[in-house]
Design a protein that fits this description.
Layout: E1 9-10, E2 14-18, H1 24-30, H2 34-37, H3 49-57, E3 65-71, E4 77-87, E5 92-99, H4 109-124, E6 129-135, H5 139-148, E7 151-162, E8 165-175
Parallel strand pairs: 5-6
Antiparallel strand pairs: 1-2, 2-3, 3-4, 4-5, 6-8, 7-8
Helix pairs in contact: 1-3, 4-5
Length: 181
């Protein structure tokens, strides 16, 4: 199983179950879709199933919680998410999410997923802060993060080269008590 011992998180429309190595057979396809990949840290790279398996298998069991995002109604595996670098001393973690099937974008699954992860981080793990980074071209992601309460805390100017141009990377943070969903 990928990462820290963790159970399933259930929302109204999504179920977050622990990510397992066999999920790589599906998710590595999404990670090579240019529409999906352009907003991810691994943009511009070819991801094999073995790469995905290795990522899941090698997650640090002490500090990473990795989940598969599954739709409650259809039982369809549509994305991955997680809390990375969970630090029990400074009580913080970094959030990551990808809805790997573009036909499922804009339906609220990402918003519910981020809300579930952040509630889990604050209420169950006792964290004080959840951070993330997002490329400036990711308008959908930025709208989602702002909607749930994240604030832009910084900017790495022209940090990545995507679609033939330099793009800023934005640093966002959410503190316990600021979650809006």
């Amino acid at each position: 199983m990928g990462g820290m011992a963790g159970g399933t998180l259930e929302g109204g429309r999504v179920v977050l179950r622990p990510l397992v190595e066999d999920d790589a057979a599906v998710c590595h396809h999404w990670l090579n879709d240019p529409a999906v990949q352009r907003t991810l840290v691994l943009h511009g790279r070819r991801i094999t199933e073995a790469d995905s398996r290795r990522f899941i298998r090698d997650a640090d069991a002490r500090s990473d919680l990795l989940f598969a995002i599954v739709t409650r109604d259809a039982g369809l595996y549509v994305g991955n998410c997680g809390l990375h670098g969970v630090d029990p001393v400074d009580r913080r973690a970094e959030l990551g999410i990808v809805i790997g099937r573009p036909e499922w974008w804009g339906r609220g699954y990402g918003t519910e997923t981020v809300g579930l992860l952040c509630r889990h981080a604050f209420a169950s793990l006792g964290l004080h802060r959840v951070g993330l980074s997002c490329y400036a071209i990711n308008e959908r992601g930025l709208a989602l993060y702002t909607r749930v309460g994240f604030r832009i805390e910084g900017r790495r100017r022209e940090a990545v080269f995507i679609d033939g141009r330099w793009v800023d990377e934005l640093i966002l943070g959410l503190l316990a008590g600021e979650l809006r969903c």
